[in-house]
From TrEMBL, chain A:
Keywords: Transferase. One of its GO terms (molecular function) is acyltransferase activity. The lineage of its organism: Bacteria, Pseudomonadati, Pseudomonadota, Gammaproteobacteria, Cellvibrionales. This is Beta-ketoacyl-[acyl-carrier-protein] synthase III C-terminal domain-containing protein. The keyword Isomerase does not apply. InterPro entries: ACP_syn_III_C, Thiolase-like. Pfam families: ACP_syn_III_C (PF08541). Residues 208-287 form the Beta-ketoacyl-[acyl-carrier-protein] synthase III C-terminal domain. It comes from Zhongshania marina. It comes from the Bacteria.
TrEMBL record, chain B:
This is Acetyl-CoA acetyltransferase. It holds the Pfam family Thiolase_C_1. One of its GO terms (molecular function) is acetyl-CoA C-acyltransferase activity. NCBIfam families: PRK06157.1. Residues 266-392 form the Thiolase C-terminal domain. The lineage of its organism: Bacteria, Pseudomonadati, Pseudomonadota, Gammaproteobacteria, Cellvibrionales.
Length: 476, 399
C-alpha cells in the first residue's frame, strides 16, 4: 500500500508580528489586541500558492520515485481555469504525461486528496499552497499565514504508513469565502462547542478506531484550530496525550489553510522517531482524519528550521503587495505587462522549468537556447541537450538594487548570475539582505512570479536567484 | 582589402540645438534648429544634399518611424532618407551611414540628423520599453541606471577598491561635468554642484545616486559631410575630417557565457581597437587631445577611461581623482558638460559629441576652447554593459 515517502514545506521569508497588525488597526478594532501574540508568514508580491507549493516540493524529487500524477490542493488557486498542478508540474520538470489535477474550494482539499492518493496505486506528488487574501483588520488577516507543503505518496520506501483514515462530509461551514468576497466567520464559541464536538471529534475517533490504536498512545497530533482553544479542546475530548503541533505552527506562521495539515505532517515526520504515530485532521464542511505510523527517520527536513527562521516584515508592504492598499507608484508603474500567449506557448516548458541546453556533452550550457548556439554557430535548437538550471549552484557576477524600476516591493534587485555548469543568465534577485549582495555570493534558484498583467490578471512565472540559506536556513 | 574612411570624409557644417527640457518645441523644431545652424555653417542649400539619415532611438516618443519625420520636418527635396536606430549609439550611427555614403562616392553631400524628444513622457528617465515578447518572459526589467550600476560592484571586486573610494571617484566625474556644463550655454544643466551634494544625493541604483546619473533631455544635432575635395571647392581647405567611426555590438558572450567579470565593457575595447587601427593611433593616452565619452552614469565614464586606453587598467580611480580628465587636465573629458550636463537626447547624443570636437578642432569652442587640439575622440555606449553597442569616433583636421 502507498505511504508517505517524503514530505516538504516552504514558508516565505517575511514574518509580520501580529502585534504590528493589531497596532495598525488599534484606532478602530481594539479586539485585535487579543490575537496579537506571535507572527504570521507573509508571501512576497511575487509568491503565490503555486510558487510556494513548488518550493515545498523541489527537494522531494530527489527521492527517485517515478511520479504518475501531480495533484495541487489549495483554496487560493491563482486561476479559476488554468491548472495550478500543470504549472507546478512544468516548473518541477515533470514529464508531460504526468496526470495533473487540482483540488479546490475546501480547507480539506489537501487531506481529501491525500486519502485518495493513499488509496490509489499511483505515485502521487501532492502539493498544496496558500496565499489567502483577507480583509484588513479581520481575524483572518491576523491569524492566517502563507505557506506551501507537499508530500510524495508512493509505495517506495515510505517513511510513514497510513494505519487508518476516516472522512465525513457535513455542510456546516464555520466560515466561508464566497467568490469575490472576503472570508466571513461564524461565532467562535459556536464553532468550538458545537461544530468541532459534533463533527470533528467523532470523525477523528472513527479514524483512530479504524487504525487500531489507542488515542492516548498517539505521539503527534495536527488538529484543526479554527478558533482559539479548539486544538486543546479537541485533544481533551479525544483523550490524546500527543504533542500538539498546530498552535506552534500558528504562533510562528499562522493557520495555513489547506496546506496546514500537510505542513503539520511534515513537521511531525521531521521530529518523529521510528514507531511514533501521527494524527492529522482537517476541518471545514466536514472533517478528514488520518493516522500514520512512522517506519523510518525523515530524509528531508525543512519545516522546523522554517518555523524558527524568517525575518521581520512590515505591515504596509504586506497589504500593498496583496492589492489591499494601492499606493501610487507613479507613472513608471503604468508599464504594460501583457504576455503574448503564443510566445509563452512556444517556450513555456523551458521558461517555466528553467531549462537551457548545450549542443554536446562538453558544450557550453546556455539559457535560453538560441537558433545559433553560443559556442557552435552550426548547431540547431533540435540538437540541444536539455540542462535544467533550477537546482544548479550559482554565484553573483554583478548586482544592483534599483530604485527606478517599478516593482511592488522596491528596490528591484537584479544582475548577472553565473552557474557552476558554465551558464550565465541575467536574473532578478529575491530575499536580498539589506546590505545587498557582493560579487561571488552563492545563490540558489526560486520559482516566482515574474510579472503580473494588472489589466488582465495574468501572471507569468519564472525563476529568480536568492542568496543561499535565505529561506530560513532550510536544510536540503 | 578594406582601406577604411580615414580622411575621406570632411565635416563642412554642424549644428546643435539648445538641449534641455524644451517644453516650447517638438521634434520638428529641434531638428530644424540644428539643421539650419549646420546648413548656414556649411554655406550650402538643402538642394545640394544627396542623402539624409535620421537617428532617433525611441521612435514611439513624438518622432515616429521611417524617413518621414526628417523628410517632412526639413522639407527635404525627395532625396533618399533613412531612419537608423542603435540605442545610445544612434546619433553616431547616423553619421557613420552618411560618412560611408560620401566615402563610397554614392553621394557628394550627405546630412546626418539626430533627435530625441523625451520630455513629453510625463516622467524623468528613459521611457519604459518592452524587451520583446520572448525576452520579457525571462529577462529582468532593469532600468538604465540599474544596468550600468552593475559595473561598480564588479569593478570593486576586480581591483579591490573600497565602496567609499569608488564613490568618491564617481562623484568627481559628475562634479567635473557640472563644472564644465556651467560654462556651456547650450547645455541642459548649467549649475555647478559640490562634491558633498553629489555624495549625499538620493540613491537611484546602488551605488549610483541622483548626481551619478545623467538626465534625459530634448535636443537635436546635425552634421553635413562631403569629400575633402568638394569641401575645398566650398572654400574649406583644412576641414575637420573623420579619422574613424567604429561600432561593436555584443553577441551574447558577456551575458551568457562564463568569462567576462563585468568590470569593463568588451565592446568599447573592441570598437576602440578598430578605431585606433583605422586612424593610425598608436598611443591613445598621448595622441588624443580630448574626449567626449558616454557618461550616462559616472561609473560608466570611469571604466570607459580604461576601456579606451586613457587610463591603465585599474588606474581610473586615481587618474580621475588626480584631475587628469578635468577641463584643465591632461585629457579633458566632457569639456562641454557631457551627457551628464549638456544633456542626453539619445538619438542626438553621438552627433552632439562630434559637434564639440568640430568646434574644438577649429578653435571655435569659446570659453572652453583648449589649445593644440589635434585629435578628438567620441564614444557611445548603448544598452547595458553586458548587452551593448559601443561606438568610437575619431576626428581631426585634414592636415
Amino acid at each position: 500500500m502507498n505511504g508517505i515517502t517524503v514530505a516538504g514545506t516552504y514558508l516565505p521569508q517575511a514574518r509580520i508580528a501580529r502585534s504590528e497588525i493589531a497596532k495598525a488597526h488599534a484606532w478602530a478594532i481594539s479586539a485585535l489586541k487579543g490575537k496579537s501574540r506571535g507572527q504570521r508568514s507573509a508571501a512576497a508580491w511575487d509568491e503565490d500558492a503555486i510558487t510556494m507549493a513548488v518550493e515545498s516540493s523541489r527537494a522531494l524529487l530527489s527521492s527517485g520515485v517515478d511520479i504518475d500524477q501531480c495533484v495541487f490542493a489549495s483554496t487560493s488557486h491563482p486561476y479559476i481555469d488554468r491548472s495550478s498542478a500543470t504549472i507546478a508540474a512544468t516548473a518541477l520538470g515533470l514529464a508531460d504525461d504526468v496526470i495533473t489535477s487540482d483540488a479546490a474550494t475546501s480547507r480539506r482539499a489537501a487531506t481529501s486528496a491525500l486519502i485518495q492518493a493513499l488509496r490509489s496505486d499511483s505515485n502521487t506528488l501532492l502539493l498544496s499552497g496558500e496565499k489567502r487574501i483577507a480583509k484588513p483588520g479581520s481575524w483572518a488577516e491576523i491569524v492566517w499565514g502563507d505557506a506551501g507543503a507537499a508530500v510524495l505518496v508512493s509505495n517506495a520506501s515510505p517513511q510513514a504508513q497510513c494505519l487508518g483514515w476516516h472522512s465525513r462530509n457535513e455542510d456546516c461551514p464555520d466560515f466561508y469565502t464566497a467568490t469575490g468576497f472576503h472570508p466571513y466567520q461564524g461565532e467562535e464559541r459556536w464553532i468550538k462547542e458545537q461544530l468541532l464536538s459534533g463533527i470533528a471529534t467523532p470523525t477523528i475517533r472513527k479514524a483512530i478506531e479504524k487504525a487500531g490504536v489507542n488515542a492516548a498512545d498517539i505521539t503527534w497530533a495536527v488538529l484543526p484550530d479554527p478558533s482559539p482553544g479548539c486544538e486543546k479542546a479537541l485533544a481533551k475530548e479525544l483523550g490524546l496525550n500527543a504533542t500538539l503541533l498546530t498552535q506552534e505552527i500558528v504562533a510562528n506562521a499562522g493557520d495555513l489553510g489547506s496546506s496546514h495539515p500537510l505542513f503539520g505532517l511534515a513537521l511531525a515526520l521531521e521530529r518523529a522517531k521510528v514507531g511514533d504515530t501521527i494524527l492529522v485532521a482537517s476541518f471545514g464542511n466536514g472533517c478528514d482524519a488520518l493516522i500514520f505510523k512512522v517506519e523510518s527517520l525523515a530524509t528531508h527536513a525543512s519545516a522546523d528550521a522554517q518555523l524558527q527562521g524568517g525575518s521581520a516584515g512590515s505591515y504596509m508592504p504586506f497589504i500593498n503587495s496583496r492589492g489591499l492598499f494601492d499606493i501610487d507608484c507613479g507613472p513608471r508603474a503604468e508599464r504594460v505587462d501583457k504576455t503574448a500567449l503564443s510566445v509563452h506557448a512556444r517556450y513555456q516548458r523551458d521558461i517555466t522549468s528553467f531549462t537551457g541546453g548545450k549542443i554536446s556533452e562538453s558544450g557550453a550550457v546556455q539559457f535560453p537556447k538560441s537558433p545559433t548556439a553560443l559556442d557552435n554557430a552550426a548547431a540547431t535548437p533540435a540538437q540541444y541537450i536539455d540542462v535544467c538550471l533550477a537546482s544548479e549552484q550559482a554565484s553573483v557576477v554583478s548586482y544592483t538594487a534599483d530604485y527606478l524600476t517599478y516593482t511592488p516591493q522596491p528596490p528591484f534587485c537584479f544582475g548577472l548570475v553565473q552557474f557552476k555548469n558554465g551558464a550565465r543568465v541575467a536574473m532578478e534577485y529575491v530575499d536580498v539582505p539589506s546590505e545587498g549582495l557582493e560579487v561571488g555570493d552563492q545563490l540558489e534558484m526560486r520559482f516566482r512570479i515574474k510579472h503580473i498583467d494588472r489589466e488582465r490578471g495574468y501572471r507569468h512565472y519564472f525563476w529568480k536567484a536568492a542568496p543561499v540559506k535565505s529561506n530560513n536556513g532550510e536544510q536540503n | 582589402m578594406a582601406t577604411g574612411i580615414k580622411d575621406k570624409v570632411a565635416i563642412i557644417g554642424m549644428g546643435c540645438s539648445q538641449f534641455g527640457e524644451r517644453w516650447d518645441v517638438g521634434a520638428e523644431e529641434l531638428m530644424t534648429e540644428a539643421f539650419n545652424e549646420a546648413l548656414g555653417d556649411a554655406g550650402i542649400s538643402r538642394e545640394d544634399l544627396g542623402a539624409a539619415w535620421l537617428g532617433s532611438a525611441l521612435d514611439d516618443v513624438n518622432i515616429g518611424n521611417s524617413a518621414l519625420p526628417l523628410a517632412f520636418g526639413l522639407r527635404l527635396p525627395r532625396i533618399p532618407v533613412s531612419r537608423v536606430e542603435n540605442m545610445c549609439a544612434t546619433g553616431t550611427e547616423a553619421l557613420r551611414a552618411a560618412s560611408y555614403a560620401v566615402a563610397s562616392g554614392a553621394v557628394d553631400i550627405a546630412v546626418a540628423v539626430g533627435v530625441e524628444k523625451l520630455k513629453d513622457t510625463g516622467y524623468g528617465g528613459l521611457p519604459l520599453r518592452t524587451k520583446g515578447f520572448f525576452n520579457d518572459l525571462w529577462m529582468p526589467y532593469g532600468s538604465a541606471p540599474g544596468g550600468f550600476a552593475q559595473l561598480a560592484g564588479a569593478y570593486r571586486a576586480r581591483y579591490g577598491v573600497s565602496k567609499d573610494e569608488l564613490k568618491r571617484a564617481m562623484a568627481h566625474v559628475s562634479w567635473k561635468s557640472h563644472q564644465n556644463g556651467a560654462r556651456n550655454e547650450k547645455a541642459h544643466l548649467r549649475k555647478a554642484v559640490d562634491i558633498d551634494t553629489i555624495l549625499n544625493a538620493p540613491m537611484i541604483s546602488d551605488p549610483l545616486g541622483l548626481f551619478d546619473c545623467c538626465g534625459v533631455s530634448d535636443g537635436a544635432a546635425c552634421a553635413i559631410v562631403t569629400t575633402p575635395e568638394i569641401a575645398a571647392t566650398l572654400g574649406k581647405n583644412n576641414p575637420v575630417v573623420v579619422k574613424s567611426i567604429q561600432i561593436s555590438a555584443s553577441n551574447g558572450w558577456e551575458s551568457s557565457a562564463d568569462g567576462w567579470d563585468g568590470s569593463y565593457v568588451v565592446n568599447t575595447r573592441e570598437a576602440a581597437k578598430r578605431a585606433y587601427a583605422e586612424a593610425g593611433v598608436k598611443n591613445p593616452e598621448q595622441e588624443i587631445s580630448l574626449a567626449e565619452v558616454h557618461d550616462c552614469f559616472s561609473v560608466t565614464e570611469l571604466v570607459t577611461m580604461e576601456d579606451l586606453g586613457l587610463s591603465k587598467d585599474g588606474g581610473a580611480v586615481k587618474d580621475i581623482l588626480d584631475g587628469k580628465f578635468d577641463a584643465d587636465g591632461k585629457i579633458p573629458v566632457q569639456i562641454d558638460g557631457g551627457l551628464k550636463c549638456f544633456g542626453h537626447p539619445v538619438g542626438a547624443t553621438g552627433l552632439r559629441m562630434v559637434y564639440e570636437m568640430y568646434l574644438q578642432l577649429q578653435g571655435r569652442a569659446g570659453n572652453r576652447q583648449r589649445d593644440n587640439v589635434r585629435l578628438g575622440l567620441t564614444h557611445n555606449l548603448g544598452g547595458s554593459p553586458s548587452n551593448s553597442v559601443s561606438a568610437v569616433g575619431l576626428f581631426g583636421l585634414l592636415d
